[in-house]
Every structure is written in structure tokens, then in C-alpha cells.
Design brief:
By secondary structure, the chain is an all-alpha fold. The chain is built from eleven helices and no strands. One of its GO terms (cellular component) is plasma membrane.
């Protein structure tokens, strides 16, 4: 009963706030006669979006594919690096400056370098940009999770005669799962944002980033915002899928940790 009572507040409140914000946006554009190149109205954006669903969908597939590949690469590398850093603490000490440096590298500067290295006619640069953005939160959160196991729990498993792998499977890994998904939830949105930004600086034609710049360059600002809306929906899809996967793997922890 308590959970069902909080459902309207959890779901309806953000929806009502969003509707109110869009209504105020529309009212401000009409009342203040704001020009489209400054800020198009929600009605004009919705009209362009409904009339360009096929092109928004095609661009979303390109950006989504690059974000997904980057998410998988960054997550796998981040998890493996965190495991190695846990098993061999010296690697954590050696890699700490590199991780700190990687976390502050601007995508704006990195994307053109990757295009030069791998070619402007390939999607590789966009995927690597997304992978780098994903790696940092996954690595840091997984590493933190792997270190949550208390010595007393390890000693207890050792007293029961458990092997190192049994202790890891029973104590270390379950404790690390919530932290891993915290990193993945953050990374899922970063993957889309990074792939989108990477499209601004070159690469093949296609993707939401390219479509936004093309529409803005042709002064079709409502269409540019329609592609922005597509990017928002894509980011939400990535986040919701990640959250659903977390609920599937650890339903009790997910319900407690989900925002």
C-alpha cells in the first residue's frame, strides 16, 4: 500500500511539472513574440517532429548504434580494469593519474583527433569518444563496489573453507553489483551525449548531431529542435533500459536505489 501510494507522486509529479513547463514555454514565446532563431515554440517543434519522424528515427539509429557500441566497449574495459585494480592494488596506484587525466579530457578536443587517426568516413571516432566517456564512471563505481566487502566477511568465508573464487562470488561480486549499475546508469546517458557531440566535428553524414547542425545551418530551427527532442528520447531510452536491466538483475536493490 505504501508503495502504491507513492506511485502518483513518483510518476505523475514529474509529468505534471513537464506539462506546466511546456505550457509556460509556449505562453512565453507567444506573449513575448520570441523569434524562432532564438527559441521556437513547442507547437512548432512538435509539428516538425511529427512531420519528420522517419528522418529523426534514421538519425537516432545512427547515434544510438554508436552510443551502444561505445557503452559496451567502455563498460567491459571499465569492469575489467576495476577487477585488475582490485586484485593488483599497484595497478590502481599507477593508473590513478591516467584515469584522472582521462576524466577531464574534453570531447571537443578529442573527437577531431580520432577522426584524423581513424578516418572521417568511419564511425570509429564517435564510438571511441562514447567509450571513453563511459569508461570513467563504470571503472570508478565498479572499483568502489569491489572494495565494499568487509574483512570480517572474507574471514568468515575463509573459516568455512571457501576458495578464493567462492568468496568472491558470494561476498565481493554481490556487493559490487549496485555500484556497477550506478556507473552504468550514469554512463548510459553519457554515451548518447558523447556520440552526439562527436558528430558535430566531422565523420560520416548521419546521426542526430549532424542533423541538428544541418537544420540550424539552413535556418530551420524548429526542425533542429525536433532532432534535439529525438536525442532526449534516445537518452531516456538508454537510461530506462539500463534501469530495467538493474531491476532484473537485483530487483530489491534497484527499487531502493532508483531515483
Amino acid at each position: 500500500m505504501k508503495q502504491s501510494a507513492s506511485l502518483p507522486r513518483t510518476i505523475l509529479a514529474p509529468i505534471l511539472l513537464g506539462v506546466l513547463a511546456v505550457a509556460l514555454w509556449q505562453l512565453a514565446v507567444v506573449a513575448l513574440e520570441i523569434k524562432p532563431f532564438v527559441l521556437p515554440s513547442p507547437v512548432s517543434i512538435a509539428t516538425e517532429f511529427s512531420g519528420s519522424v522517419s528522418s529523426v528515427w534514421a538519425a537516432s539509429l545512427v547515434t544510438g548504434a554508436n552510443a551502444l557500441i561505445g557503452l559496451l566497449i567502455g563498460a567491459v574495459v571499465g569492469i575489467i580494469a576495476a577487477i585488475i585494480a582490485t586484485v593488483l592494488p599497484i595497478t590502481d596506484e599507477l593508473s590513478a593519474p591516467l584515469v584522472a587525466a582521462a576524466s577531464v579530457i574534453p570531447i571537443v578536443a578529442l573527437a577531431p583527433v580520432f577522426y584524423t587517426m581513424f578516418g572521417a568516413d568511419k564511425e570509429t571516432a564517435r564510438q571511441l569518444v562514447a567509450a571513453l566517456a563511459v569508461f570513467i564512471p563504470v571503472y570508478l563505481n565498479t572499483l568502489r563496489g569491489l572494495r565494499q566487502a568487509r574483512p570480517v566477511h572474507r574471514d568468515l568465508m575463509r573459516a568455512y573453507g571457501a576458495s578464493a573464487w567462492q568468496a568472491t562470488r558470494a561476498v565481493t561480486l554481490p556487493g559490487a553489483v549496485p555500484f556497477l549499475f550506478i556507473g552504468l546508469r550514469i554512463a548510459s546517458s553519457l554515451a548518447v551525449i558523447s556520440a552526439l557531440i562527436g558528430e558535430y566535428f566531422g565523420g560520416p553524414i548521419g546521426g542526430l548531431g549532424k542533423s541538428i547542425t544541418s537544420a540550424a545551418a539552413s535556418s530551420n530551427y524548429s526542425l533542429a529542435y525536433a532532432y534535439v527532442l529525438g536525442a532526449i528520447i534516445l537518452g531516456l531510452v538508454f537510461y530506462i533500459v539500463t534501469l530495467g536491466l538493474e531491476k532484473l538483475v537485483s530487483p530489491h536493490r534497484a527499487s531502493a536505489s532508483a531515483p
